[in-house]
UniProtKB/TrEMBL annotation:
Protein name as catalogued: DNA polymerase III subunit gamma/tau
Subunit details: DNA polymerase III contains a core (composed of alpha, epsilon and theta chains) that associates with a tau subunit. This core dimerizes to form the POLIII' complex. PolIII' associates with the gamma complex (composed of gamma, delta, delta', psi and chi chains) and with the beta chain to form the complete DNA polymerase III complex.
Gene: dnaX
Database matches in Gene3D superfamilies: 1.10.8.60, 1.20.272.10, P-loop containing nucleotide triphosphate hydrolases
Annotated GO biological process: DNA-templated DNA replication
Biased composition (Low complexity): 371-411
PANTHER family registered for this protein in UniProt: PROTEIN STICHEL-LIKE 2, REPLICATION FACTOR C / DNA POLYMERASE III GAMMA-TAU SUBUNIT
Function: DNA polymerase III is a complex, multichain enzyme responsible for most of the replicative synthesis in bacteria. This DNA polymerase also exhibits 3' to 5' exonuclease activity.
Organism (species): Candidatus Sulfomarinibacter kjeldsenii
GO terms for cellular component: DNA polymerase III complex
Enzyme class: transferase
Domain spans labelled AAA+ ATPase: 37-179
Protein family per UniProt: Belongs to the DnaX/STICHEL family.
Region annotation (Disordered) ranges: 370-436
Keywords of this entry: ATP-binding, DNA replication, DNA-directed DNA polymerase, Metal-binding, Nucleotide-binding, Nucleotidyltransferase, Transferase, Zinc
Length: 456
């Protein structure tokens, strides 16, 4: 028996099976139930989110022997032929390969005739934004005054490239990227029904790699099944998707969160030297950070993962706490475009990792400046003398080991860098008349931050 790809085997055959697109489904079903559906639709959204599937379902729904109906029977000749792609009255055209005006003219010839058997002649045009200008112009006339037996369904991954004149004559439906949790659940359902092994964390990794596209997720799963003989686990995912082993990602996150710059960079270099893709590694750092953050906030919210990974990340979550992790994740997010878009992604990854690793030190100085005193989580910047801070003048005056008092810092002309724990510090700082340590812009106003912790 030949293997049929999962995307075909599990293609939704009714609207209720089209998951992750509730708004679209509801709009279409309402229109079908009330008989108020339009004659031209424009479906837009990422690749693999269900646009063509929805177009075929709509074709089925309007032409079903019981229809038009939101629940096509799936058994009449029309329903079966649409599902098989052999219906004579449902025409599919890929505008990516048929971009010219001649193809559109040929279509228009067809439109002069009534449907052979069904109620509607449905024309599904995929990637419609690829049509040439003259093809669009030819199309426009047909959409303006379509014969009553014609239903146009256009699909596009780039709506902005579709001329406004076409857009305004269509009912537009936006398909959203499908959430990774939904995709993960779907993959696990398929594995159960198809009786092959798919570990929860492998399913989560595939869902994350698919970036909102159900079709991509299913095709990755096809590849993995072929590679791992129906035993899809983390190891298979690491090999096929080029994802770094979770242990390595967690080690890296541990090093970055603890401010161990050298360890973090060494791990990054090691992975890059092994041929690891820089943006994939960065994405995985983000996933691990997010998981650690959720574990710190409320373990019940944490994404699905194996026990072993959970234990590893729990260590990071407990030693760092939610606030530092959430700020690190914010910083990770700010740098994502940098890593993805850079011509030199390896360098961008190193820079981004360096910043992530320096974050705990910056945060300590900030907290100290804000008067909340040094924090005591982990070894922090002591393993790498802190000279990074919100003030420029911190450079050149590394913190005195064992902790310098605010008064000493003032004498030295140092305005920051005091990060070691010192119980006397908070007291001294609060009795200090308050020397200006830094200025910051808060809500559009320049505020002086004083060593006694007050802003002015
Ligand atoms: Zn039917």
């Amino acid at each position: 028996m030949t293997y049929q790809v999962l995307a075909r085997t599990w293609r939704p055959q009714r609207f209720s099976e089209l998951f992750g697109q509730d708004a679209v489904v509801q709009t279409l079903c309402n229109a079908l139930t009330s008989g108020t559906f339009g004659q031209a639709y424009l479906f837009s959204g990422l690749r693999g989110v269900g646009k063509t599937t929805a177009a075929r379902l709509l074709a089925k729904a309007v032409n079903c022997a019981d229809g038009p109906t939101a629940e096509p029977c799936g058994e009449c000749d029309s329903c079966r032929e649409v599902a098989e792609g052999s219906s004579i009255d449902v025409i599919e055209m890929d505008a990516a390969t048929h971009t010219g005006v001649d193809e559109v003219r040929e279509l228009q010839e067809l439109l002069r005739f009534h449907p052979t058997r069904d109620r509607f002649r449905v024309i599904i045009v995929d990637e419609v934004h690829m049509l040439s200008k003259s093809a669009f112009n030819a199309l426009l006339k047909t959409i303006e005054e379509p014969p009553p037996y014609i239903l146009w369904i256009f699909a596009t991954t780039d709506r902005l490239k579709v001329p406004a004149t076409i857009q305004s004559r269509c009912q537009q439906l936006d398909f959203r990227p499908v959430g990774s949790e939904l995709i993960r659940t779907r993959l696990e359902e398929i594995a159960t029904k198809d009786e092959f092994t798919l570990t929860p964390s492998a399913a989560a990794s595939i869902a994350a790699a698919a970036e909102g596209s159900v079709r991509d997720a299913l095709s990755l799963l096809d590849q993995l099944r072929a590679f791992a003989s129906d035993n899809v686990d983390d190891e298979a995912v690491a090999s096929v998707l080029g994802v770094p082993p979770m242990e390595v990602t967690v080690q890296l996150v541990e090093a970055l969160a603890a401010g161990r710059v050298a360890d973090g960079l060494a791990l990054v270099r090691d992975q890059l030297a092994n041929g690891q893709d820089a943006s994939v590694l960065y994405r995985e750092i983000g996933r691990a950070l997010r998981a650690a953050l959720f574990l710190a906030v409320d373990p019940a919210l944490a994404p699905t993962m194996s026990e072993a990974h959970r234990d590893l990340l729990l260590g990071v979550a407990e030693s760092r706490g939610a606030d530092p992790l959430s700020r690190m994740l914010g910083l990770w997010l700010e740098q994502e475009a940098l890593v993805r878009g850079s011509a030199n992604r390896e360098l961008a990854l190193e820079v981004a990792s360096l910043r992530l690793a320096r974050w705990p030190s910056v945060q300590r100085v900030e907290e100290w400046l804000a008067g909340s005193g040094p924090i005591d989580s982990g070894p922090g910047p002591s393993s790498s003398p802190s000279s990074v801070g919100p003030t420029k003048s911190s450079q050149g005056t590394p913190p005195a080991p064992g902790g310098a008092s605010a008064a000493e810092a003032q004498e030295n002309g140092s305005s920051s860098g005091v990060t070691e724990e010192d119980p006397s510090l908070a007291e001294e700082a609060s009795s200090d008349p308050g020397v200006i340590l830094a200025t910051r812009v808060l809500g559009g106003e320049v505020v002086a931050v004083r060593s006694n912790g007050e802003g002015s």
